[in-house]
Specification:
This protein is 50% helix and 12% strand. It is of the alpha/beta class and 230 residues long. A five-stranded parallel beta sheet has the order 2-1-3-4-5, with helices on both faces.
């Protein structure tokens, strides 16, 4: 029996056939990735996802029938959901931000080069950061609510002071290595703190930790990357 791992299963959801064709060509050229199906609208995306059980769904946010935002929300609410990577025309797209809040793990701009597509897809499948922190900050700062809901502020009370420090620095775009240096901690300790933050706040990944940090008011729009809490 071969020891080679099975390729990750990907579902492509976009109402433009040429976009789906281009993504399929890029992904199917790799031994660790395979496109198992396609959908041209959000309703079909939900049906095909239930049928095919992909590891990753590439989801266009602007589709007929059921849009990608609603489809992402429903997919991410299912038991053992696939990862969702939003496919959008512009990185500062309100629909992309809505999809991230709904549970997507990142976004991919439609005119991205093949190598960038592969790097992003593999990062999402690993659960890593799948987009530049600066891009995520710009997106969140453009669409974040002007005042934090009381429920979001209350959730911060679940965290220790050190966990809040780590979360704030993640939201400001620092890597684990940079956070470790800033807080005089080991990098493994930073990862442990971040894992506890995600667990206590029921957040899917680092992206959703950043969104929560802004929406709870822990980090405010206009804070400089790497700035100390004031």
């Amino acid at each position: 029996m071969s020891g080679t791992a099975a390729p990750h299963r990907v579902l492509l959801c976009d109402d433009q056939e040429l976009i789906r064709m281009g993504l399929r060509m890029v992904l199917d050229s790799q031994p660790d990735l395979t496109v198992v199906g396609e959908a041209a609208d959000g309703r079909a995306a939900l049906e095909r996802s239930a049928e095919l059980r992909p590891d990753l769904v590439l989801m266009d946010v602007r589709m007929p029938e059921v849009d990608g935002l609603a489809a992402t929300r429903e997919l991410c609410a299912r038991p053992s959901p696939p990862k969702v990577l939003v496919v959008t025309t512009f990185d500062l797209d309100e629909y992309a931000y809505g999809a991230l809040r709904a549970g997507a793990s990142g976004f991919l701009v439609k005119d991205a080069l093949g190598e960038e597509i592969l790097v992003t897809v593999r990062a999402v499948l690993r659960g890593d950061v799948m987009m530049a922190p600066s891009a995520l900050r710009r997106l969140v700062e453009r669409y974040v609510l002007p005042s934090a809901p009381a429920a979001e502020r209350g959730r911060l009370a679940r965290l220790t002071d050190r966990e809040r420090d780590v979360l704030a620095l993640v939201a400001r775009g620092l890597s684990n290595t940079e956070i470790a240096a800033r807080l005089f901690l080991g990098e493994t300790t930073v990862k442990t703190h971040l894992g506890r933050v995600l667990g206590k706040l029921d957040l899917r990944d680092r992206v959703h930790a950043v969104i929560f940090a802004y929406e709870s008011g822990l980090v405010r729009v206009g804070d400089r990357p790497g700035a100390d809490r004031g």
